[in-house]
Prior knowledge:
A: alpha+beta; 31% helix; B: globular
Amino acid sequence: MTAAANLIATAAHVARASWDAQCTTAVLANGTPQGAEVRCLPMTIGGLRAVRAFHFTVRSDATVPLLLTALGGCVAETAATSLALRGVVPDSLVVVAGCGPAGLSVRLEARGCSTEALAAALAHVRSYSPVHRLLADPGDLRIAGANGPVTAIDLPVAEVTVTWLDGLRSRTNREIDEPHQLAGGDRAPSPLEYLLGALAAESAGSGAEVHVSARRDLRGWFGMPGVPPEPRALLVQATTPGDEPAVGVIAHLVAHAQQVESSSTVLP
Amino acid sequence: MPQVSGWFPDLLTTAGGANRPRGWLTTVAEQEGAESVLVYRSRADAVLAVLTGLTNPGGHVVAGEDCADLVVDGLLAEGRTVTSVAAAAPDAVFAAIRDTTQVIFLSSLVEPAMRLTPVNEISAVAHGEDLLVVVDNSVLTPASFRPLDSGAHVAIVDWTGHGIDMSTVAGSDHLLRLLPPGDSDLSAPPIGSVLDRVRQRSDTASAVAAALAGHRLLRRVERAGFAEHPWARETHDGFGPVLVVSCAVDPAPAAAALAGADVTATVHPLDPSALRITVRDGTPERITAVVDAALTIAAST
């Protein structure tokens, strides 16, 4: 079964079974002098537990590129799904995700598909990509456990290029994938796990341990009306009593609506 | 939130059920109380398909010790780990659960002691932990016990011991969708008559076990029953066509003497002093007589 057919079957099921649409994603970060070691925790999808036995290291100066990896990976998998649902498999699909003083940006570049199909994919990204939606319009998102108010901050300049590989899989210098319970290939952390990892790494001071989780309703990802595709609540918890999670640029990016410039180009 | 047309199809009118059973599998699904059924060529194929399909690399499986050997190598090769436990002891099962555990895999009937696994008790805890319960129901079949009715998520039956050379996997469509597709081209005789035969053989096996109890050449006769498992009155209609007899003599000559008789007898793979007897056609009296004769031959060799 292709990833698109698998997703349609999953979507058809969760459309009828709201409990099986409830998806919790979580990571645990251990702060080090250089940054953090992040471990993906089991993901729950309704009554299923998807084990995510992945670890990754985040340097303290690389949390924003990791967040852009999450954004670019999520945009790539959403665009690839949109094209696949129309029976289109592009020759190549690349997402350039950027960050600067003006906000965030995503540029979708593809070969081997029509301008109309790519434009539709971009529209679907804007509406249904969970990470894109979370950054562009967090709405009444709550970040529970963060220490103090999340205040405005100067955004650094950074850019990440994500190359779509197949199915829901893509890569930068890190690979990105979904669990096979969500039609992925089980090869790597998901975009949302990278986003939570960036937030956890920023929140965990050296020697501290921070747990970050997010719950979303998959029916939103599948376009069911009235259900937001993005997580509605993030929980940031220091696991050591007395420790308080730190708040920085990632928390600011997640908690406040960002200007996300998005464009698409069909390359010759 | 803006709505954009052309994303997923209208999901509430999309037909699910890619694994919706057809033909003879419809009868299996009805008997199991399952939404979907997949068929595989062998028990090993079915078990590996289920346990890899329902787990991820890095995941952990708690498996009954009588069936762990079947799966350990295949699962380790796929990046999973396995802990072997006494399946009929729920506390041992619960103690083996880790944060990476995804599936509890048990036989509904644990050999050679022929203890029934309390699937309902284990499933109740598993549901609370977001774990899946997979039950190998090959001996009992849905003729005697329906694991899905007791809270299991997936039921596997290897029909080889009942005259059909294949294995079925029954469960809900959204779980079976995660499995390799199986071999839907396989066909089988009418399953209803097979189940009738299993019920009849189950009664025969119980009668044979009662008749052999106290036999001078046997140490014990192992056969599940309501006396040992009173709770099973709520869940079981029988105990399958198998009994295990612990012999005071070498069981190998007895097994050889029973070749071609109304039973299938082998030295038990988990207990070399025991005979595993699967009754086929024949009256309890006749089967008891041929087993008695075989034990006498074994005693004289």
